[in-house]
Fold:
Amino acid sequence: MERQQYQIKNKLKINLMKRIILLFSILISINMFSQENSESEVLPYYQIPDYPETYTAGTVAARMVDGLGFRYYWATENLREEDLEYRPNDEARSTVETIDHLYGLSKVIVNSTLQKPNIRTEEPEMTFAEKRKKTLDNIKTAADILRESNDITEYKVIFQRDEQSSEYPFWNNINGPIADALWHCGQVVLLRRSSGNPFNSKASVFQGKLRE
Structure:
């Protein structure tokens, strides 16, 4: 009888432990899921926005910028400290230096759509996460303005230094900072692969979303 009671108690303990482990696993999964969803809600371009019904100069330009946003989001997603510091050789830019350059390009792109000149100013130090968010926000702001625009010729690229300024048409924005930023997103993807943290293979740049 005692042995039978011992076996029952032991079985109950095992079942209880299994339930505790299962519950713990579920809580971890929920936490990870909520963190991922939280980031996707805060940061734009987890997936590309729906395309417009009509083709205009503004909607086409916006779609190009949206494509940049999606590529940037996944090129910079889950980068580790060792990824950020990685550089292929002494003369090449590190990953974080490339991301700094991308941030600068995003400012030129958004300033054009805000019709503001680009003026060199000292900025406070930012963490990688802060810089990533600002870059994505700049890209999203520019795309949203272009999407609603009936005349993109008004979005000139203006560089101002002291009393001197130079002005370029939106054409230069396309072949300059927008195309350049796409180029450098590809570099970040290559650099992170070299540092052992490849780009998420489920991120489809053709569909603009994660594959199932």
In short: Residues 32-40 have pLDDT under 50 and may be disordered. The two ends are 55 Å apart (CA to CA). Helices lie at 2-42, 57-75, 81-85, 95-114, 128-147, 170-194. Strands lie at 118-119, 157-161, 164-168, 203-204, 209-210.
